[in-house]
Structure formats: structure tokens, C-alpha cells
Prior knowledge:
234 residues, Arc Repressor Mutant, subunit A, Four Helix Bundle (Hemerythrin (Met), subunit A), two-stranded antiparallel sheet, elongated, DNA-binding (chains A, B), DNA binding (chains A, B)
Amino acid sequence: MSEFTAARAHDAVLRHVEESLRSGALKLGDRLPGERALAEQFAISRASVRNAIRALEVMGVVRSATGSGPNSGTIVVSNPSSALGGALRMHVASHQLPLKDIVEARTMTETWALEHAATAPWTPEQIDDARRLLEAMDDDGLPSQIFTLLDAQFHVALSALAGNVVVSTMMESMREAIRDYISDAAVRQGAWEEVVHVLRAHHHGIFDAVEARDGVLAARLVREHIEWFYGKAI
Amino acid sequence: MSEFTAARAHDAVLRHVEESLRSGALKLGDRLPGERALAEQFAISRASVRNAIRALEVMGVVRSATGSGPNSGTIVVSNPSSALGGALRMHVASHQLPLKDIVEARTMTETWALEHAATAPWTPEQIDDARRLLEAMDDDGLPSQIFTLLDAQFHVALSALAGNVVVSTMMESMREAIRDYISDAAVRQGAWEEVVHVLRAHHHGIFDAVEARDGVLAARLVREHIEWFYGKAI
């Protein structure tokens, strides 16, 4: 099969899956037909089918598992953040997406999210997710690696209150893309004891502003927080 | 090979490529070692190598071509927008990322981009790219499909003046994700003659604001433009 034909065979499967998802014929948790059935349906090689399924896997649209149990086969999932984050990270690594631009894009996204979070109709239970993370970070004995992990979850939980799934996905993707730089920075910042005090104070200020529904203040504080951290890190 | 081992084999190749890109050992236009060499280097199966390369392809990090010419083999490229846009589109199709949220995220991104474009240090040549697209859309005889194409390029060219590659990539990805909805909307809007007059007037206003370096006006006009269009389309 020529390269051209192979590309078209593969696109046909992707388009079919996209249309089935859009129409609702294929839903979260559904199983794709087997490799052989798909190959027959599109009159293409099983290698082309495998290629297309692999592409869907990388996009976070399906998960494949071998075996014959109830979890085997190719199942429709929804994993946009890890897929987009992984791709973004590769492009940051290849120096095609400058770290400075990611930090700027993150600032844009998170200030927007917190400004909207402050006025969005969240329930007490929803903001309690962020509060629990905030309070967990107050523990003095926390190793810096654990703090960094909770820190990331705190920012994502607070931004999620804005209720925009795409913005949350973008936030998580960018966070994933710069993950290693953040850990490196946390390690480089030898005076961790001093840094962690500032981080805690910032986090409490940001949380309080969202809880008090002051979107302008929340946006300003998170901007200063990000600029302060990257001013130290980059 | 168990599923677990296969996943680890595959991750090892991805991590190696990421580190090589970061260190500069692997650069844009470079060729990856062959399948067999990689399989030996990581002591994994050639199927695992193929899987990893396929993942890099889907992420827009490499392009594979068969044959033996100067363009054959697996070459490092940089194609983040089409990769991220394709994945986003799949997730929109699966109803996991609501169209309303994409439109809102696009408004956030484009208002930010135009506000920054107005004060960024672009050259006359750079803004002329957007101007040429603007003037091409003034042609009364243009079919709606061509207009829609130029329209997309106009928005991307104007946003690019802000000089943030990540934001431009996000813009293009979101545009790619909602491409079909935009074409559908253009078709549904039976009174195309009337719609196109409004679009032209909006575009000229937005362009003039950026050229006059009035970022606040540019941001406001592009927000109204997007809201007007999607008010009709969704």
C-alpha cells in the first residue's frame, strides 16, 4: 500500500470515530469494534487500523488493553489534559514553544479562570476541594516534592470553579508541560523554608479573594504569585 | 511482552527523545535513528519502537516518510497546532469539551492576543500579512468557503503580532477544533450577503484598532465580533 493510500485509510477511521462521537453513536465507556471488523468495514489493512487506534490513544480518546476481561479491548475514554499536556511538553522541549510564552499563557489563563471563579455559581462542597489542599500545604513537615504536587492540584481545583472545562484542560496541559521546570526550580531554590512561607501566604490570599467573590483581587494576586515564582525560577 | 513492559519500553523512547530535544542533541530537521537501531539501543521490540514513533507523529514532533530519498525516514518537525487542534476536535466531538466552553476560551485567548498585539513591537511587514487577508476579503465575488478560510487566517495573523507562540498555537488549535461548526454555521446563515457585510465591517474595525495601537478597543471589538457570530451560530 502506498504511503498516500495508507494515510487516507487511517484518516477514514479517524473521521468515522469523530462522526460517531459527535452523533452519539459512540459514547464514553463504549468499546470500538475489533481490529478485524474495522479493517473489513473500511477495506483497509489491519496495520492501518492499528495506526489509527494508536493515534486515538495518543489523543486521549481511547484506551487499549489486551486480554479478554471486561476491561479489555479499545474503550472510549476522555483524557484531554494528559494528551495535550504531553504534546505541549514535547514542543517545549524542542524549543519551539518558549518557556516564557508558556508562563505568559498560563498567567492569562489562570487570571481569567480566577476572575470568573469568583463570580461563578459553585457550591460550598466545590470550594472545599481547594480548601482541603490549601490546609494540607500548611503542614510544616511536608517535603518540597509533596508540597509541589498539592500546589499544582490547588491551582487546578481553584480554576475549575470557573466551570469552563476547556480552560481547565488548558491549565492542566500547561502545568504538565512545565512540570519538570517547576520541580527543578523548587530544588534550585535552596532556601526552601523561606520560599514555602511566601507560597503559603500567597495561596491563602488567592483563596480568600475567590471565596469572598472578589474576582479582580483574585486575578491580581494570582498574577503576582506566578510572576514572583517564575522571577525566581527562570 | 506484557502490557506493562510494553508501556515502559515505549515511555523510555519518548523520554529519550524529549531529553535529546531539550539538550539540543536532536534538532528540527534531524533524522531519528532507524527502527532497528532504536530497538537495540533500548533493548525493546521493533513494534514498541514503531508505537513510540507513531505517538511522536501524532503529537506533531516527527514526520515519517517511507522510501530512501533525502526526505525519507523519521524527521524532527514542529507542528504543534495541527496536533493539538486535532486532539481538541476529537474531545469536542465526544461532548467532553462543550462548544460553549471552547468559544469562551477562544474569546479569552483572542482578546488577550489583540490587546498585546496592539503594543507589541511588530514591523510594518508583519502587519501587512493581516492587511493582505483583510483586503482579499473585500472582494464581493468571494465564495463563502474561501471567505471563511481567509477569515481564519486573518484572525491568526493578527493574533500572531502579540509575539507569543503558545497563545498563537492555542488560537489555531481552537480554531481547528471548531472548524466544522464554523463552516456549518456559514452554510446555515442563509442570508450570507448580509452576514458578510457585518463580518467585513468588524474585521476592518479590529484591524484599524490594532494598527492604531489601541489594545483596549481591539480587545473589545474582537469580543463583540466573536459573540455576535456565535450568537447567530450556536
